[in-house]
């Protein structure tokens, strides 16, 4: 059994690379098989179609996001946690950028995936609120529950729309750089600047500098 | 010539209604002709294909947005102007909601439209910045140029992604209410709350109340 499991994993890994580089729509199962130098039959032994590969990649993506998207347990949040969340979000967006580029198309063509995405989206919004509440409890942000709800929603929309924004705004939408995606994470940090307490301000300002990518740079690279 | 011009206008108007109600992808030129009780040949006399109708609707949309998206001339901006912008944005989003629902699909299938959209997007970002700068000059907001750039970008992304967010998050994505779209405009107002001056705060808080739609309400209707 061992080699078979390995091929399955390799198919998933190679598909992710090709989807990220070329966009999911331009990559067929035949492309994937040719790229891996295996027969289409061998690929179909593991996955009935491209949707099954995408579903597997979405599971990995969900797992990666849910592994970090929760408040720290048993202690107050710190600005260092904020850096950790931003870096983890950047990594997840970069690793699975094909999902963010073509999401409506993927959901339109797979009802089950659309249902899973809806539940994932709801869990992320709840976890995001809990994280922001944690920063309020820790005296890093000063916000009401209504403001937290609106901020979390804006965070979610910016993060899930950023790659698409880049693709519809840039002349050359094929290639995406990690720097361009980092600017999206900066845009999320900016959302909360009006609510940072005086004590936390120097540390959050330093974070802003760390994540700042000039807009022109993000739009050109 | 008069009746012909009238048919042309009726085709555009009927297409807009059907696209908004059913989504552009579900509506063919045959549907439009049948709905208007004219022959497909009559429709093709005016428009070679659906793309031409969409291009015409996009022109109308651009015209509507550009008619209001600029700072007031010869005087300082007021909070009353802010209400005017928010209402005008809500109207444009509601009238052309089909564009916001399926934008990538529309741009993918029409290179010329994608180029026009890119230029439109750049003009809107510049005008948005000029409007926010006007609110700073008028003592309503207190922000640096770097903050204005980031805020304008977040505004653009929230406004252009809101309808899609609703469609991917709600169980029943077919029907969109004006209330649900209004919540998107509220989300934009929230973006600037951290930068409102003490003098302007009561008036901006009143605006927030006016545009607030409970999230649950937006997600269910």
From TrEMBL, chains A, B:
- Entry's Gene3D superfamilies? Tetracycline Repressor, domain 2 (1.10.357.10)
Question: Looking at the record's lineage, which domain of life comes first?
Answer: Bacteria
* Keywords assigned by UniProt, alphabetized: DNA-binding
Q: Which GO terms describe its molecular function?
A: DNA binding
User: Where is the signal peptide, in residue numbers?
Assistant: none
Q: Return the protein name.
A: TetR/AcrR family transcriptional regulator
Per the UniProt entry, what species is this protein from, by scientific name?
Answer: Pseudomonas bharatica CSV86
């Amino acid at each position: 059994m061992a080699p078979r499991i390995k091929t399955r994993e390799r198919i998933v890994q190679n598909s992710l690379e090709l989807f990220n580089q070329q966009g999911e729509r331009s990559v067929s199962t035949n492309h994937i098989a040719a790229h891996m130098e295996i027969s289409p039959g061998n690929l179909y032994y593991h996955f009935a179609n491209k949707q099954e590969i995408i579903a597997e990649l979405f599971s990995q993506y969900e797992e990666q996001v849910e592994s970090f998207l929760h408040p720290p347990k048993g202690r107050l949040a710190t600005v260092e946690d904020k850096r950790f969340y931003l870096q983890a979000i950047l990594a997840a967006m970069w690793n699975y950028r094909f999902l963010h580029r073509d999401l409506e198309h993927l959901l339109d063509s797979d009802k089950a995936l659309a249902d899973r995405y809806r539940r994932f989206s709801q869990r992320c919004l709840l976890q995001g609120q809990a994280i922001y509440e944690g920063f309020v409890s820790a005296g890093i942000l000063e916000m009401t529950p209504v403001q937290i709800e609106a901020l979390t929603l804006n965070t979610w929309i910016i993060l899930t729309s950023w790659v698409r924004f880049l693709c519809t705004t840039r002349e050359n939408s094929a290639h995406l750089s990690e720097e361009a995606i980092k600017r999206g994470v900066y845009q999320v940090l900016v959302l909360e600047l009006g609510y940072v307490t005086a004590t936390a301000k120097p540390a959050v300002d330093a974070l802003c500098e760390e994540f700042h990518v000039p807009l022109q740079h993000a739009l050109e690279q």
